[in-house]
Amino acid sequence: MIKVGIIGGAGYTAGELIRILLNHPKAEITYAQSTSQAGLPVSSIHTDLVGETELSFVAEADYEVDVLFLCMGHGRSRSFVEAIPADFKGKIIDLSNDYRLKETADGFVYGLPELNKKRIQKADKIANPGCFATAIQVALLPLAEAGKLKEVHVHAITGSTGAGQACSGTTHFSWRNNNASVYKSFSHQHLGEIGESLVQLQPAFADAVNFVPMRGNYPRGILASVYLETELEENAAQELYEHYYAAHPFTHVVRNSPDVKQVVNTNRALVSVKKHGTKLHIISVIDNLLKGASGQAVQNMNLLFGLDEAEGLRLKPVAF
């Protein structure tokens, strides 16, 4: 069994990670650490786990594990990693944005399996991608590999859990409910990792990725609506996408426009491509907490330890 330690265990991504790993046939949670909740039952914070686990949060990390999942806030993982004892032999999967960019990666491999599966399998340290970044890259990677990318336009909407568990003026119910808003237009922090991945596949790509993020009035899920000019016909684009994702068990190319409910509670990404005049319109949907965070982190763990990529991740969508 893979022995797992979870650092920063009280947030949304940690809760989803615990829910998945409790039912993973080849992994065992050794502990979940939380400075703020130490001593409390895990199920008192992650109340969906009542009756599922007797784990309580611990205050300190234990390094006698095979893998550490870092579920701390952005900016905190780096100081934690720098303090890990030199004799630690386990692997690290970081869910923050601290190691996603090449100039600050410090040996971490960017953990998008649809892009870097072979590199992930040989790695010891993984930088898990961002949720918006995952949805947008899944929409664009086949075009980049084919050298077909031009200036890209993206509108994408995310559920409130994408902002994390801490309350703010734009996450509490009375503001978010029956509301929608735009934020960080053309400046979202995930643009950096998206750009690096696209250039990895299409080195000459130097056009803009124009990204307008939106907040939705629902808890979880991302829908990315992407378009660009292309000479590709629709059938050729469909074949391009189907070929690219043929070896990737969680990304599926569909004929009809996908919606968020098809992927909530799963590690799946659904992608559709349609031609409208000279423009190719790509829609991708993911669950921001699973394929956009914790599910993808477990997918990466499976790859790191030579398991079936989908082990423990055959989750069912919530239809209603």
What does this structure look like?
The chain is α/β, with parallel strands linked by helices and 320 residues long. The chain has two domains: 2-128 and 293-304, NAD(P)-binding Rossmann-like Domain (Rossmann fold), CATH 3.40.50.720; 131-286, Dihydrodipicolinate Reductase, domain 2. The protein has nine helices and 13 strands. It has a seven-stranded mixed β-sheet with strand order 8-9-7-10-13-12-11. Strands 2-1-3-4-6-5 form a six-stranded parallel β-sheet, with helices on one face. Helix 1 crosses helix 9 (294-304), helix 4 runs parallel beside helix 9 and helix 5 runs parallel beside helix 7 (191-201). The radius of gyration is 19 Å and the shape is globular. The model has no long low-confidence stretch (mean pLDDT 94). Residues 3-123 form the Semialdehyde dehydrogenase NAD-binding domain. It is found in: Cytoplasm.
Largest sheet: 7 strands, mixed
| Oligomer status | single chain
Structurally, the number of domains stands at 2
Number of strands: 13
Mean pLDDT: 94
- Structural class estimated from helices and strands: alpha/beta
CATH topology heading of the largest domain: Dihydrodipicolinate Reductase, domain 2
CATH architecture of the largest domain: 2-Layer Sandwich
Distance between the termini: 35 Å
Q: How would you describe the shape?
A: globular
Poorly predicted ranges:
none
Radius of gyration: 19 Å
Proportion in helices: 25-40%
Question: Largest sheet, order of strands side by side?
Answer: 8-9-7-10-13-12-11
Number of helices: 9
H and E string: EHEHEHEEHEHEHEHEEHEEEH
CATH-level-4 superfamily name of the largest domain: Dihydrodipicolinate Reductase, domain 2
Q: Can you identify the CATH class of the largest domain? A: Alpha Beta
